[in-house]
Amino acid sequence: MSEEFGAPAGGAELAPGADERWTLVFVREFRQAPVVVWGALTEPEQLDQWAPFVPVRNLGSLGETTLTMVDGATREQTPAVVTRAEAPSVLEYSWGEDLLRWELEETAGGTRLILRHTLSHPGTEAMVAAGWHLCAEVLRRLLDGRPVGVIRGADAMDHGFEELRVAYAKLFGI
């Protein structure tokens, strides 16, 4: 992964989650106000530019939806339910058997984003952290007005995914 694209692995930890599952706690700082970051977390048109999935509807309201994972020409639909949507501070929804909770805190410099991703499958912690790392870097550039294009699925391998996975595994002591 080139220095130009992203920072080294970090800003993440594992915490015991519900039902003996692990929760990846991932923290990033953005220069934009929480309302701007909220839009990037909830609006399908924006999510399609940085996230690993595209929702069929805006995630800013409660209820069922579908998240479509995209990997090149492959599409995989996963059911989801938005259980909490308190703009612009807390967004929580299921992603299949996983649970994602996004917390946005206003800071002097913009927004602190805290993602709590409770994992349903043990052994995926470093892989998930590497994926969110790349997504967060793409989001940062998008919000800064320097879009690089979405990086997800197999395309992530060309952008340092494997190096990040190894680095996060080491960071987590896996």
Characterization of the model:
With 174 residues, this protein is of the alpha+beta class. It has a single domain, classed as START domain (Alpha-D-Glucose-1,6-Bisphosphate, Chain A, domain 4, 2-Layer Sandwich). It is built from 4 helices and 8 strands; from the N terminus they run E-E-H-H-E-E-E-E-E-E-H-H. The chain has helices spanning 34-42, 44-47, 125-143, 161-172; strands at 12-16, 22-30, 53-55, 63-71, 74-86, 90-95, 98-107, 110-118. Residues 36-143 form the Activator of Hsp90 ATPase homologue 1/2-like C-terminal domain. Belongs to the AHA1 family. Pfam families: AHSA1. InterPro entries: ASHA1/2-like_C, START-like_dom_sf.
**What is the straight-line distance between the termini?**
21 Å
Q: Flag low-confidence runs.
A: none
The rounded Rg comes to 15 Å
* CATH architecture field: 2-Layer Sandwich
Q: What's the CATH topology label?
A: Alpha-D-Glucose-1,6-Bisphosphate, Chain A, domain 4
Number of separate strands:
8
CATH class: Alpha Beta
Q: How many structural units, i.e. domains?
A: 1
Helix content: 25-40%
Order of helices and strands: EEHHEEEEEEHH
Question: What would you say about this model in short?
Answer:
It holds the Pfam family AHSA1. This protein has four helices and eight strands, in the order ββααββββββαα. The chain has 174 residues and is α+β, with helices and mostly antiparallel strands.
Features:
174 residues, alpha+beta, Alpha-D-Glucose-1,6-Bisphosphate, Chain A, domain 4, 8-stranded antiparallel sheet, 8 strands, globular, START-like_dom_sf, ASHA1/2-like_C
